[in-house]
Amino acid sequence: MVEIIKKKRDGHILTADEIREVINGFVSGKIPDYQVSAWLMAIFFRGMNDEETAALTDAMMRSGDLIDLSAIPGIKVDKHSTGGVGDKTTLVLGPLVASAGVPLAKMSGRGLGHTGGTLDKLEAIPGFDVSMSADEFVEQVRKHGIAICSQNEKLVPADKKLYALRDVTGTVDNISLIASSVMSKKLACGADAIVIDLKVGDGAFIKTIPDAEKLAEIMISTAKKMNRNLIAVITGMEEPLGYAIGNALEVREAIDTLRGHGPEDLTQLSLELGGHMLVLAGRVATMEEGMVLLKDNITNGSAFAKFTELVRIQGGDVSYVTDPTRLTLAPHAVEFRSDRKGFISHLSAMDIGIASAKLGAGRETKESSIDLGAGIVLKKKVGDYVDSGDTLAVLYTSDLTLVAKAEEYLREAYTFAESKPEKQPLIFRTVS
């Protein structure tokens, strides 16, 4: 292990066998944390080439169980978002794509810090069960065309251990380490093709388009070496997606979108990502054709019907879906008013996400509990004109003592201008 650390420290290329030796030794406990920490720091400064990144992804993927979806007919497609604020896209996109006959097998995560988690949002629906065995997962996708559940503890144990070290050694923000973390989990879940929603901007982990493009290219190269198709869509996260931030609030907004009257940005993003997924699955020839089909499935109700089916088969109370006003919100609703006037020129997704977490909707650590009914509903976004005294947002919380701290972040979130600003595009480019 010392020789491998020195080799990477000095800028040399590691072999696939050397990388596999590190990962297997770390997972089995034969290689201690402090040596792997030194190895990660060497990678952070020296980087990895495409072959090393693919080898690391493969070793991590094979560190635990692999899910075999081959018994399910057709091309199985998965989607991953690199994280954002108000990003309830999976709740819309999953049933939307499945309603078009494309099998969607998705293992999702929980929220941490300023970003939300799909599993927490689904658990805002009473009874919804995100736990299932690998066999149950495969069978549900085969029978119903969709499953969304928590990651099996036996899948990619190397990623969990490596991420814990990266988090405490300042080595999270490395393109190869990010790519291998995402790709190992996606590939272990058995998908034939993957669409990555690569968030960039204030509320994302990736701040610049060049960094996003570099990460996209590495992911695509890694997928290609492992005989998978991958498309990365670089999307904006300067302001939150949609108007709702917080678990039950976001479920309500996702249901509105599946019924055809959701926010424009969430609807557009879901249709475009879904169009790419349908192309990868061979369901349509072009993304535009896919978008038309998906839009029709929203209009004719089949997308919402598939969401209702998903909730029912995973134990959720469907009455909360057919009447989303039944979803429990936190008891206190506090209006946050503007003390300025003008056009909103910037709305910090990061500050909004932190404010929502401060109200109880997010976690400080993985062990923290969350208030599924807490969060924020935005009333104004970038480009809107505001008078002094207008309501900018409504804050939902179960504990009024949390409001003051959340408002500190909200005051920092808004920037005003005298003239109406040009909004940044929602989708910057697609890398394929």
Textual characterization of the structure:
The chain has 432 residues and is an alpha/beta fold. It folds into three domains: 2-47, Transferase, Pyrimidine Nucleoside Phosphorylase, Chain C (Transferase, Pyrimidine Nucleoside Phosphorylase, Chain A, domain 3), CATH 1.20.970; 77-322, Pyrimidine Nucleoside Phosphorylase, Chain A, domain 2 (3-Layer(aba) Sandwich), CATH 3.40.1030.10; 328-417, Pyrimidine nucleoside phosphorylase-like, C-terminal domain (Aldehyde Oxidoreductase, domain 3, Alpha-Beta Complex), CATH 3.90.1170.30. It has 17 helices and 13 strands. It has helices spanning 2-9, 16-28, 33-46, 50-61, 89-98, 118-122, 134-144, 157-169, 175-188, 209-225, 247-258, 264-280, 287-299, 302-313, 319-322, 349-361, 403-413; strands at 77-81, 104-108, 146-150, 193-200, 229-236, 244-245, 332-337, 342-347, 375-378, 385-386, 391-397, 414-417, 427-431. A four-stranded mixed beta sheet has the order 1-4-5-13, with helices on both faces. The protein is globular, with a radius of gyration of 22 Å.
Shape: globular
Kindly estimate the percentage of residues that lie in beta strands according to DSSP: 15-25%
The strand line-up of the biggest sheet is 1-4-5-13
Number of strands: 13
- CATH architecture verdict of the largest domain: 3-Layer(aba) Sandwich
- Spell the H/E element sequence: HHHHEHEHHEHHEHEEHHHHHEEHEEEHEE
CATH topology of the largest domain: Pyrimidine Nucleoside Phosphorylase, Chain A, domain 2
CATH class call of the largest domain: Alpha Beta
Tell me the helix content: 40-55%
Q: Please tally the helical runs, counting DSSP H or I stretches of 4 or more residues.
A: 17
Give the end-to-end Cα distance, rounded to a whole number of Å: 37 Å
